[in-house]
Amino acid sequence: MRFVRLLVTGLVVVATPAQSQSSCSASASSLTPAGWRSPVLVTSMPPKAGLRLVREIPLPGPANRFDYQSVDPASGRIYMNHMNAGRTIVFDANNGKVVGEVADVPRATGVWVVPTHHQVYVSAAGNHEVAIIDDRTLKITSRVGGIRFPDGIAYASGADKVFVSDESGGADVVIDPTTARKRSTINLGGEAGNTHYDSVSHCSRRALRSSGFRRAAWLYPR
Q: If you placed Cys at 24, which of 8, 33, 107, 159 could pair as Cys (CB 3.0 to 4.6 Å)?
């Protein structure tokens, strides 16, 4: 068994309440809503500078390429795609152990947890599809195909939609988490390697799309 160093760097996911569209001034040059202010952080002691290695965790499978990770802050699970092994590894950060593996996701690239639906979305680029996993059973419950090279994934909580970058197809695929089916395909006119949902400008329900290396496109997931 090979050892892989796992470095977790304090990822925090914060849910923000929806704001009215009229109060938002997000635009192509500014994604920050009107009236938004940086929160005041109160700490009892100053944070320590830098990062340090806590421990090394043995992971299953060969020591070849890993790709995206996604954290479920409620359960403390980290979903890690072992890309060249075609598996998604489930790691429990609370006890420091691997608690499961999901196979049959060839060339696993992007991964994203949607706790409200008990779903984990995995881009299985080798099958040109997205696999949807039940986070309670760690079983694949559905597959959404017809995607040339699925890559980065994001969940727009305000619109309850999942966005998947089709890198080779130059598009974003929109999936309905309720039905686990494709809703639509948005042509981006270029290579789309990753996708992110901007929770700060949640009032405009805006998702940021990476489109190639030269430009970015912004979409409203209404």
A: 33
